[in-house]
Design brief:
By secondary structure, this protein is mainly beta. Strand 1 and strand 2 form a beta hairpin. The longest helix is centred in the middle third of the chain and has 18 residues.
Length: about 130
């Protein structure tokens, strides 16, 4: 038989601010279901999250995986580059597809243009670089 709760009672809930299962006070009910609770630790009010259904920590991409995908994209962009290859200069004007040689980051491909800036994809990551576009 299911236990019936009322507002003002204590209950364990997953706290969305503390990111832990902690004691809460029931603040609001929606018919017989618990709607909102208040954390006794941080005093935040949020929807009731059943501890059994608490989300497991999201797995983020490993840095190695991100570097590998960036490298693969870089290789494709370099192979498909249509522009001329030249030394990077902050005062240079670039077009999408130009190859740039940077003294620190190495070879890159211009991917997007902005006012006085451009996105350049290097082997390790994409960087926002100054230009005179």
């Amino acid at each position: 038989m299911l236990e019936k709760f009322t507002a003002g009672e204590n209950i364990a809930s997953y706290c969305t601010k503390c990111k832990l299962v902690l004691d809460h006070v029931i603040v609001a009910m929606a018919e017989e279901a618990i709607a909102k609770v208040k954390c006794k630790t941080c005093n935040s009010t949020h929807k009731f999250r059943d501890p059994a259904d608490a989300k497991k920590p999201r797995q983020t991409k490993k840095k190695e995986d991100v570097v590998k995908t960036t490298e693969a994209l870089w290789e494709i962009c370099v192979a498909e580059a249509t522009g001329q290859e030249r030394e990077y200069a902050m005062t240079g004007k670039y077009r999408v597809g130009d190859l740039v040689l940077h003294n620190t980051f190495g070879r890159g491909v211009v991917r997007k243009l902005y006012l006085n800036k451009c996105d350049v994809l290097f082997k390790d990551k994409e960087r926002l670089m100054a230009s005179s576009n």
